[in-house]
Amino acid sequence: MATYTIYWNTFTVSFAPHTVLEEIGIDYEAKWIDFEGKEQKSESFLQINPNGFLPVLLLEDGSPMYESGGMVMYLADRYPSSGLAPAVSDPDRYLYNQWLFYLPFQIYQTYTRCYDSAKFSPDEADGGRIRDLGAQDLQKYWKIIDDALQDRAWLIGDRFSACDIYMFMMTRWHIPRQYEIPNLPSLFYDDFFEQFPNITRVAAKVAERPAVQKVMKLYPIEDLIGFYERVAQNYIL
Questions:
Q1: Which ranges of 7-108 would DSSP assign to H, the alpha helix?
Q2: Which of 9, 104, 163, 229 has the largest count of CB atoms under 10 Å?
Q3: 167: nearest Cα among 68, 78, 27
Q4: pLDDT in tens, the chain (237 residues)
Q5: Alpha helix stretches (DSSP H) within 103-178
């Protein structure tokens, strides 16, 4: 029996904990959740995560854990030999904690404002303003990261950590311009990152890691393009 089970889908932030499991090299089972069939809203799944969201990680004793940032932190601390997290007593631990909170709360949640504005206001007329402000905030939040990487090899200094995996996951949410989608704002294309050379540099190094490459194959760009095509259909210009 696998030590862990991760419930995942390509449209979610399961990529980060999924990759951490591969980096650690621990035995785990990956269970695909069918969004088209709304499996994440089924009674059986809601017993695992009452929020109806992904990812979910079943721990060694079968306890369910949700929130991707928490999973990443838990796994990296649980297996210190992986080198994915500095020890609690390590001088770099404050940076590690900082980025693992900053990335999901400032970056990830701001993307949600850009592609799912209905979550933030019941009035469709507010959608354009919510998305515009979200796009402006994203540029600001990403620039803070890019500036922090100016003189660093990785987010916490000279060593790779789980923070870099989480950041890399979100850099993959920008598709090449060759996949032009009508009505899709420039925010979602990869030229958005031309202004962030340090992020681009670090992301390229993360992508070279064997564990990352293995998981990337499970999260194909075609699925992301399909998702953005649906986003564009509902986008109010």
A1: 15-24, 43-46, 68-78, 93-102
A2: 163
A3: 68
A4: 689 999 999 989 999 999 999 999 999 999 999 888 888 899 999 999 999 999 999 999 999 999 999 999 999 999 999 999 999 999 999 999 999 999 999 999 999 988 887 787 887 778 888 888 989 999 999 999 999 999 999 999 999 999 999 999 999 999 999 998 988 888 899 888 889 999 999 999 999 999 999 999 999 999 999 989 988 887 654
A5: 109-115, 127-148, 162-171
Distance between CA 21 and CA 74 in Å, rounded?
Answer: 11
* Closest residue by Cα to residue 53 from 75, 38, 31: 38
Instruction: Examine residue 80 and say whether the peptide bond preceding it is cis (omega within 30 degrees of 0).
Output: no
> What is the residue whose two structure tokens read 């681009």?
200
